[in-house]
Design brief:
MutS, DNA mismatch repair protein, domain I; Dna Ligase, domain 1; 4 domains; 6-stranded antiparallel β-barrel
């Protein structure tokens, strides 16, 4: 068993990483050793990352003990980069965590300076050159190989012949060097997708009341609209993130059926949502910061606005969209629906319902037939109702059929219209007929299955024409 972590006090007593537990106990008989729990450590790192989102929405996990924070465009909210760095470290220390942080142009440089206790002063290359080769984030084998070659600092490999050095020491060292110096791109995956647009406010004193939250939300909406105007976009989904002094985040999301770029309609949605969740916010020690994220946005089309005055009693597109947004915020997005057409051959799956806030891109404009003949019934049964049918030939149109205990004589029949079933679901082929009985009632019948198959075909009434 080995030591995977030691605190500052243990390090001063001569204990180091990778030392065997037996040797450590021989040196310090009263040593307190706690068994490693990787899952608990990973969860703790994720909790710290969630807490760090009050400083920037772009937080990247670097297991087992590191985090990357992209503070581009955020530092001025905290008085500058150095004050932001000091605040993060100080507050983590206050929570009982040991932490070191550094600010640098690239993730590789920040990683190296934070772990080897050197801040960036002067040129990046000069400050980076004096660090040991382990600062390149090398695996253990690559670091040992460089040491065997007599290379102890990064400066010794900065000007090394790239082809011969790469062949002897491997590509990892040169790749890490290029990434740290900004010569090669390094892709980092944020803990959560970064919002395309966001605004952040910090408070001198924590806020507690719902009125204060609404006031801050209105200010954030105003800041957000300014950024959306520049991008020419509108909000489809926005999330208000309240950062509690207790370290917990409260997220309040709203959706819009069409892109919004005005403070008033946005505030109407947030007011509805806050009225519902206000009692469950549980402010406790208050909120120290708030951020408004645009999770989904869309291009804002000026033509969608009403250009002329309309009668107040008429339901304009803007009025309907406003009602849909308010009801969705109050009742939930899944409880406010609108009909939609589906690209499916089976009639019972050709139409359905979708959230009223969902995109309208799936809607299709169905043109009426040129001859004016109605191909589909006004009323559709789901599922179809089974009937007894007599036909002139086995695969011909019906002559008479019994439905709901009444025998109906067919005087006219048109068809068949064949619709093949989904072969992946083993659905049978259907032959549809439009028929009319002696009383002038028109039906939509279909035969399920084909003659000659293992099972005898069955007949159903699927709908009624007007």
């Amino acid at each position: 068993m080995q030591l995977k972590g030691v605190d500052l006090r243990a390090h001063k007593l001569g204990l180091n990483l990778a030392m065997s537990l037996a040797d450590a106990r021989a040196m310090q008989p009263k040593l307190e050793a706690i068994e490693e729990e990787p899952e608990e450590d990973a969860q703790a790192l994720d909790n710290i990352a969630a807490w760090c989102e009050r400083f920037t929405p772009i937080v990247v996990l670097d297991p087992p003990e590191g985090l990357f924070l992209d503070i581009t465009g955020c530092a001025h909210l905290f008085g500058g980069e150095e004050k932001l760095r000091m605040e993060i470290v100080t507050r983590l220390h206050a929570q009982g965590f040991g932490a070191r942080a550094a600010i640098a142009p690239t993730p590789g440089c920040a990683w190296a300076f934070a772990r080897y206790r050197r801040q960036l002063q002067g040129e990046v290359t000069d400050a980076f050159a004096v660090l040991p080769v382990e600062a390149l984030r090398l695996d253990a084998d690559a670091a040992v190989l460089l040491r065997r070659l007599g290379l102890k600092t990064i400066g010794q490999i900065l000007n090394a012949p790239r082809s011969s050095f790469t062949a002897r020491a491997g590509e990892q060292a040169m790749l890490r060097l290029d990434q740290a110096l900004g010569r090669a791109q390094e892709a980092l995956m944020p803990r959560r997708p970064a919002p395309p647009v966001f605004v952040l406010r910090r408070f001198l004193e924590p806020i507690f009341t719902g009125e204060a939250v609404l006031h801050v939300t209105q200010d954030l909406c105003g800041d957000l609209i300014e950024k959306l105007d520049i991008r020419g976009a509108g909000v489809l989904r926005a999330e208000l993130v309240l950062f509690g002094v207790d370290g917990r985040d409260r997220v309040i999301g709203v959706n819009a059926s069409k892109p919004l770029r005005e403070v008033k309609p946005l505030m109407r949605l947030f007011r509805e949502k806050l009225n519902i969740v206000g009692e469950n916010l549980n402010a406790q020690f208050g909120f120290e910061a708030a951020r408004l994220d645009v999770v989904r946005l869309a291009e804002f089309d000026q033509r969608t606005q009403t250009l002329v005055s309309v009668d107040a009693g008429s339901a304009s597109a803007e009025t309907i969209s406003g009602i849909v947004d308010v009801l969705s915020s109050r009742l939930g997005a899944k409880r406010v629906v609108r009909p939609q057409l589906n690209d499916a051959h089976a009639p019972e799956r050709a139409a359905g319902w979708r959230s009223a806030l969902a995109s309208k891109g799936q809607d299709q404009l169905i043109k009426p037939p040129a001859d004016g003949v109605q191909r589909r019934p006004v009323r559709l049964f789901s599922p179809g109702q089974q009937i007894e049918v007599m036909a002139g030939v086995p695969d011909g149109p019906p002559i008479r059929f019994r439905w709901r205990r009444v025998m109906r004589e067919v005087v006219r029949a048109e068809g068949p219209e064949r619709i093949s079933g989904d072969w992946q679901k083993y659905e049978k082929t259907r032959d549809y007929y439009r028929v009319e009985d002696k009383q002038g009632r028109r039906y939509w019948l279909y035969r399920e299955g084909l003659y000659g198959e293992s099972e005898t075909p069955r007949w159903f009434v699927h709908g009624l024409f007007a």
